[in-house]
UniProtKB/TrEMBL annotation:
One of its GO terms (cellular component) is nucleus. This is DDE-domain-containing protein. InterPro entries: CenT-Element_Derived, DDE_SF_endonuclease_dom. It comes from the Eukaryota. GO terms for molecular function: DNA binding. Residues 21-144 form the DDE-1 domain. It comes from Tuber magnatum.
């Protein structure tokens, strides 16, 4: 989010400086009609970012996690999936969740998903098949 584009309008590199390595991971979950959008999942480097001061991170309107590399991990995935499943059970919904083949995205082995059926996209097809990759994520990055 801090790194400027690597190419400009002329498609030539804009500078020869090393790229900024600070990262944020954003994860989105929405149904096909966009009538049900889950809170965004944000993964960053710090436990309590200074910019938020003493405010509770839960009051920001999204799920916040942290780890050294700001990447999705199996622990974060399984915790989010379990809470999502419980929410779908409360609403008495049965859903299919399309998931890309990130190594962190695994099926839980210590509990059963009652309201969610996981369907994994085939390898190397995420950019063609995943609806969020076909414009929603790109638009988010442009606004961000």
């Amino acid at each position: 989010y801090r790194m400027p584009p690597s190419v400009g309008l002329t498609l030539w590199p804009t500078n020869s400086q090393k790229g900024e390595k600070t990262r944020l991971t954003h994860s989105f979950c929405v149904n096909g009609t966009r009538s049900d959008e889950r809170e965004e999942l944000v993964i960053a480097h710090t436990r309590q970012p200074q910019c938020f001061g003493k405010r509770s991170l839960q009051s920001l309107g999204y799920d916040y996690y942290f780890n050294k590399k700001a990447w999705m991990t199996r622990t974060i995935w399984l915790e989010w999936l379990k809470r999502f499943n419980e929410d779908m059970e409360r609403q008495n919904c049965q859903i299919i969740l399309l998931v890309d083949n990130c190594s962190a995205h695994i099926e839980p082995i210590d509990y059963t998903l009652k309201a969610i059926r996981l369907e994994f996209l085939p390898p190397n097809t995420t950019s063609q098949l995943q609806p969020l990759d076909s414009g929603i994520i790109r638009t988010f990055k442009a606004y961000y």
